[in-house]
């Protein structure tokens, strides 16, 4: 099992992707939407893998377009290390390649991805097939902060 680790710039959001795939097999998708292009974001996922997201600071959630996915934005450094989406009781995610230590190897196998022509049903079906199961947990949150937790499933 390979472990790909990274974080936002300040380390308040940490990610670990576990996958049987090599970096070359995982590769990266450079999304061509205006949000991802303006952030220079490339993403990867493995539906047979697992992603752990640990939030140790304040996170803002941003929804764009269809409003179905939540971009996890660090409120300290502004970096988006992951995007989550809940489907049929499962929380799925893509991880930002640029936040991973192995980014150079992953980006060496990048392809452009353009989803502009997708209708919503196609987009959700693609995510169900391709995104990684994820566990999101907070670290060191007080009880009042836990009460204000984001609307995705939290694990402690």
Describe this structure in words.
By secondary structure, the protein is an alpha+beta fold. It contains 5 helices and 11 strands. The chain has helices spanning about 25, 35-40, 105, 120-130, 145, and strands at about 1-5, 15-20, 30, 40-45, 50-55, 60, 70-75, 80-85, 90-95, 110-115, 130-140. Strands 1, 2, 3, 4, 5, 6, 7, 8, 9, 10 and 11 form an 11-stranded mixed sheet that branches. A hairpin with a 7-residue loop joins β7 (about 70-75) and β8 (about 80-85). It starts with a strand and ends in a 9-residue tail after the last helix. Residues about 140-155 have low confidence and may be disordered.
Topology diagram in text:
Layout: E1 2-7, E2 13-19, H1 23-26, E3 28-31, H2 34-39, E4 42-44, E5 50-55, E6 59-62, E7 70-74, E8 82-87, E9 90-96, H3 103-107, E10 110-113, H4 120-130, E11 132-138, H5 143-147
Parallel strand pairs: 3-10, 5-11
Antiparallel strand pairs: 1-2, 2-5, 3-4, 4-9, 6-7, 7-8, 8-9, 9-11
Provide a compact summary of the structure:
It is built from 5 helices and 11 strands, in the order ββαβαββββββαβαβα. It has helices at 23-26, 34-39, 103-107, 120-130, 143-147; strands spanning 2-7, 13-19, 28-31, 42-44, 50-55, 59-62, 70-74, 82-87, 90-96, 110-113, 132-138.
Radius of gyration: 15 Å
- Count of separate DSSP helical elements: 5
- Provide the low-confidence segments as ranges: 142-156
Proportion of strand residues: 35-45%
State the share of residues found in helices, binned by percent.
Answer: 10-25%
Report how far the terminal alpha carbons are from each other.
Answer: 23 Å
Anisotropy-based shape: globular
Please, what is the oligomeric state? single chain
SSE string, helix = H, strand = E?
EEHEHEEEEEEHEHEH
How many individual β-strands?
11
Mean pLDDT: 84
What profile does the largest beta sheet have? 11 strands, mixed
Structural class: alpha+beta
């Amino acid at each position: 099992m390979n472990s790909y680790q990274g974080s936002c710039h300040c380390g308040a959001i940490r990610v670990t992707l576990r996958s049987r795939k090599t970096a070359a097999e995982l590769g990266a998708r450079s999304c061509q939407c205006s949000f991802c292009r303006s952030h220079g974001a490339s993403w990867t996922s493995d539906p047979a893998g697992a992603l752990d997201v640990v939030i140790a600071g304040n996170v803002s959630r941003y929804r764009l377009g269809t409003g179905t996915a939540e971009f996890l934005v660090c409120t300290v450094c502004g970096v988006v290390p992951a995007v989550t989406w809940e489907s049929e009781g499962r929380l799925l995610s893509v991880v930002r390649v640029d936040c991973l230590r192995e980014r150079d190897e992953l980006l060496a196998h990048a392809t452009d991805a353009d989803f502009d022509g997708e209708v919503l049903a196609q987009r959700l079906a693609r995510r169900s097939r391709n995104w990684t199961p994820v566990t999101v947990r907070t670290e060191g949150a007080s009880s009042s902060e836990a009460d204000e937790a984001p609307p995705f499933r939290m694990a402690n």
